[in-house]
Amino acid sequence: MGNLWHPQPRNLSSGFDWLVFNLPDGLWAFGFMSFLIIICRNDTKLIRIVYYGIGFLLMMGHEAVQGTLLPGTFDPLDLLAIIIGIFSSWFLLS
After folding, report:
1. pLDDT digits (tens, 9 = 90+) for 32-78
2. Residue 23 CB: number of other CB atoms within 10 A?
């Protein structure tokens, strides 16, 4: 059994486990990036780039810190889900 700092790796039992474990991170990233795109729509290009960059760093950093400094459930597939969420929001709203 894993402890708080080093949780046990989960056993993937079906092909749909990504739906339970990774999709929420992708949807969270999609929603947050969509929020940033909508509120920065009328700002200058430089301001938009700064906000999008900060948002990207926050989302990716949150997941990376779970694997290094803080207790959490780091998963490389979560990083992929976050990237897909960010770019799908960018694609649909920009």
Report:
1. 999 999 999 999 999 999 999 999 999 999 888 887 887 777 888 89
2. 16
